[in-house]
Amino acid sequence: MSLVGPSGSGKSSLLRAVIGLQQTLSGTVENNLARSQVGILFQDDALLPWKTARDNVALGLIFNGTERSKALAEAEAWLERLALVGFGDRFPRHLSGGQRKRVALAQVLAMKPKLILMDEPFASLDAIVRARVVKDVVALVEREKISVLLVTHDLEEALSLSDEVYLMSQGPRARITQHYTVPIPRPRDPIHSRMHPAFAAIYERLWADLSREVDQRAEGA
């Protein structure tokens, strides 16, 4: 599921409220998941620069009481799944942007979450690296049956990755104004899904609706 909308509509705040990093002013956040079953992936990878890739991935497991040797072995297994064999001893400064993003993802996935919150996690990557990392993420979450709530400004990304897309209105006091169901079957390739017959029509509708929200802000300014 993706959340899209104008800047300042509260998309990132909504993610922080879901995971408990921000208190709601009113209303409630309801789910049947324990806090440990929810992971979050920010735009910045937030890796500890003084720890190796393996140690960064193992960090959450160790905090949750997993024996260090077992946590490191599990971290290595996740690095292998994300095509980072041989990179476990490297520090973040010795990794490319795409490699750091994979390490951050391994750190989240090692905790075996049922839900991952993603806040523009691929925005800092160049186009080719971004496409490859996104493809890996899609394959992993489909295989592991993990739900994802994604915040993105990229409408093509929202539609190519999601089953459901929600459009938020201008803030403050933003609300959900539109809902789009994406009828592209899974398993799904994020690039090839953009060639699906249904993609263009939904994209045009989403673009028009988002443009109206942005224009309303300009008129009210």
Structure description:
The structure is a single chain. The chain is α/β, with parallel strands linked by helices and 221 residues long. Helix content is 43%, strand content 13%. The protein is built from seven helices and six strands; from the N terminus they run βαβαααβαβαββα. The protein has helices at residues 11-19, 53-63, 68-81, 97-109, 127-144, 155-161, 199-220; strands at residues 2-4, 38-41, 115-119, 147-151, 164-168, 176-181. It has a six-stranded mixed beta sheet, sandwiched between helices. α2 packs across α3, α4 (97-109) packs parallel to α5 (127-144) and α6 crosses α7. The chain is globular and about 55 Å long. The model has no long low-confidence stretch (mean pLDDT 87).
Radius of gyration: 18 Å
CA(first)-CA(last) distance: 31 Å
Strand order in space, largest sheet? 2-3-4-1-5-6
Structural class: alpha/beta
| Largest beta-sheet details | 6 strands, mixed
Oligomer: single chain
Total of DSSP H or I helical runs spanning 4+ residues: 7
Tell me the total number of β-strands.
Answer: 6
Low-confidence stretches: none
What general outline do the C-alpha atoms trace? globular
Mean pLDDT: 87
Strand content: 5-15%
Helicity level:
40-55%
Topology as H/E string? EHEHHHEHEHEEH
Helix-strand blueprint:
Layout: E1 2-4, H1 11-19, E2 38-41, H2 53-63, H3 68-81, H4 97-109, E3 115-119, H5 127-144, E4 147-151, H6 155-161, E5 164-168, E6 176-181, H7 199-220
Parallel strand pairs: 1-4, 1-5, 2-3, 3-4
Antiparallel strand pairs: 5-6
Helix pairs in contact: 2-3, 2-4, 4-5, 6-7
